């Protein structure tokens, strides 16, 4: 229990410190997946929806014109405040609630749809998060999740999570698709659609977003430079003049129904 509490405290500290970067982040604000949200969900103007771990509020912002109300939640008050300041003038139907993804403060069967994007790898108990999503969804409700996922191979999985943890102390773990599917099935959610894509990180921008100092940045860069060829090849690590330029990770988008 203490380890989970520590993980959540790390998340709050990290994201409070870097809230401005996440609201303005190009990769979060303009990801190719955002344009697919409405196409996949088929939202209705009467819907009440929930965006878990909203971060900079990019999903809430994208979907708010299509639905009645969006409840945007986040564990970090400062992050939520920054998102609200950014979105309130043009999106009056978004409501902001400080909430833990693993203990959502809503009644059973409240929402027509739930979304969560590029956040579950910060959750200490992803199985509890999935159970909570299933609980607050109405029967027939839709859950759209987007997150980085670990490759199927154990060594690739370990390496990816090691690099992520070195860059961001609040990182817990990227699960594999197989692991996520097990959690969804256990919670009574049925998969309706999925897509796996390769996402490219501009390394200097990506590593600086959460790093404390240049020493931490150098440590992450060294991990990639010194990695085995198998790792460099899978993650498409591009090195130029002894510096890491970019890398790629797997990002999974999945639509489920209760």
From TrEMBL:
<dbReference type="GO" id="GO:0032259">
    <property type="term" value="P:methylation"/>
</dbReference>
<dbReference type="InterPro" id="IPR029063">
    <property type="entry name" value="SAM-dependent_MTases_sf"/>
</dbReference>
<keyword id="KW-0489">Methyltransferase</keyword>
<dbReference type="GO" id="GO:0008757">
    <property type="term" value="F:S-adenosylmethionine-dependent methyltransferase activity"/>
</dbReference>
<keyword id="KW-0808">Transferase</keyword>
<protein>
    <submittedName>
        <fullName>Methylase</fullName>
    </submittedName>
</protein>
<dbReference type="InterPro" id="IPR013216">
    <property type="entry name" value="Methyltransf_11"/>
</dbReference>
<dbReference type="Pfam" id="PF08241">
    <property type="entry name" value="Methyltransf_11"/>
</dbReference>
<feature type="domain" description="Methyltransferase type 11">
    <location>
        <begin position="50"/>
        <end position="144"/>
    </location>
</feature>
